[in-house]
């Protein structure tokens, strides 16, 4: 019997492309995927559970983990750290579960450096015009901020070469189906299966 390790899938793309919407739609289907729980130094809010919503850490504990290279990526927003704990990801993969991480482009590039064996999926807007509409229709940002976000998005799209797959998010359900196909095909890759069989043969000898 082959014991298959899980695979880390990283969904990323420019701001406003709909990463969160696609991830929620993917997890609303019957899936064995485990969501990558982030770690943070921000205060736990009422109703939130440690190890479910986030792993909550003190600033000192978080900084110690940075020093020990125990985070696949991290960033600081408004005086709080947020990051992806290496241990949780590696233990979940070792237990045979796939782990799914949805993250900004800069964070994904950090993960690629620290965990190159992950599978990187770039969520692409149908067009820059469509991306502009999505950012504008959020209605939460000034014209100047919208322009800055679009410039940033253009730069992020240029980083697409760092990814293994590109999925155009023109329709959420179609994007989810494409991601499910990627997950399935990654498990059928010859290199992964060959590695498992090699282990199986060694165990038999």
Describe the structure.
The protein has two domains: 1-33 and 98-205, Rossmann fold; 37-96, Guanylate Kinase phosphate binding domain, CATH 3.30.63.10. Helix content is 46%, strand content 19%. The protein contains eight helices and nine strands. The chain has helices at 19-28, 59-67, 86-94, 105-114, 128-137, 143-157, 172-187, 190-204; strands spanning 8-12, 34-35, 39-40, 55-56, 71-77, 80-85, 99-103, 119-124, 165-168. Helix 1 (19-28) crosses helix 7. The two termini are 15 Å apart. The mean pLDDT is 90.
Uncertain residue segments:
none
Number of separate structural domains: 2
The chain-level structural class is: alpha/beta
Order of helices and strands: EHEEEHEEHEHEHHEHH
């Amino acid at each position: 019997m082959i014991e298959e390790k899980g695979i880390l899938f990283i969904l990323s793309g420019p701001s406003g492309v709909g990463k969160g919407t696609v991830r929620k739609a993917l997890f609303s289907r019957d899936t064995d995927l485990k969501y990558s729980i982030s770690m943070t130094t921000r205060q736990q809010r009422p109703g939130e559970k440690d190890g479910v919503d986030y792993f909550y850490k003190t600033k000192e504990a978080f900084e110690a983990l940075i020093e020990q290279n125990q985070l696949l990526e991290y960033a600081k927003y408004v005086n709080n750290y947020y990051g992806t704990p290496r241990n949780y990801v590696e233990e979940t993969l070792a237990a045979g579960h796939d782990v799914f991480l949805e993250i900004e482009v800069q964070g994904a590039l950090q993960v690629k450096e620290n965990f190159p064996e992950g599978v990187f999926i770039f969520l692409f807007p149908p067009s820059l015009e469509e991306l502009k509409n999505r950012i504008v229709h959020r209605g939460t940002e000034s014209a100047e901020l919208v322009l800055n976000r679009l410039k940033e998005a253009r730069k992020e799209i240029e980083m697409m070469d760092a990814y293994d797959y590109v999925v155009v998010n023109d329709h959420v359900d179609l994007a989810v189906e494409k991601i499910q196909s990627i997950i399935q095909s990654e498990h059928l890759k010859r290199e992964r299966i060959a590695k498992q069989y090699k282990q199986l043969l060694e165990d038999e000898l």
